[in-house]
Design brief:
The strands form two sheets. The protein has a three-stranded antiparallel beta sheet. The two termini are about 35 Å apart. About 30% of the residues lie in helices and about 15% in strands. The protein has about 120 residues and is α+β, with helices and mostly antiparallel strands.
Length: about 120
């Protein structure tokens, strides 16, 4: 995963399409963008269904002000992610998923989902 993130950081300019979700407001917070992320997830799923590679990244945040200026955003608009979309390199087969028991707990942390959960 780190190798993929590093590759993205060095090649993000090669993606033919960037989607940059933005919201208006003077003081962006983590919760401010919560309404935008379901739409982002739908875009990621749609891209995958079309055989396109896409990811939500915040790698640009070290240069957030410069990025917003380059996009010509008014001062009260802010970016909440960058979604590069393009044709993936290498193996791009089915997505591997871990079992629910590895990531879902019932009632409290560490209690396996299948232990009495309805």
């Amino acid at each position: 995963m780190l190798n993929a993130a590093e590759h993205l950081a060095h090649h993000i300019h090669e993606a033919p399409v960037w989607i940059v979700p933005c919201l208006q407001g003077d003081a962006p917070t983590r919760t401010t963008g919560s309404s935008i992320y379901p739409a982002v997830q739908n875009m990621l799923l749609a891209a995958r269904a079309l055989g396109l590679g896409a990811t939500l990244t915040t790698l640009y945040l070290s240069f957030e002000k410069e990025a917003e200026a380059a996009l010509g955003l008014p001062s009260d608009w802010h970016t909440y992610a960058l979604i590069p979309i393009g044709y993936p390199l290498g193996r791009f087969g089915p997505v591997r998923r871990v079992s629910l028991e590895e990531v879902v707990y019932a009632d409290q942390w560490g209690r396996a989902f299948h232990d009495g959960a309805a």
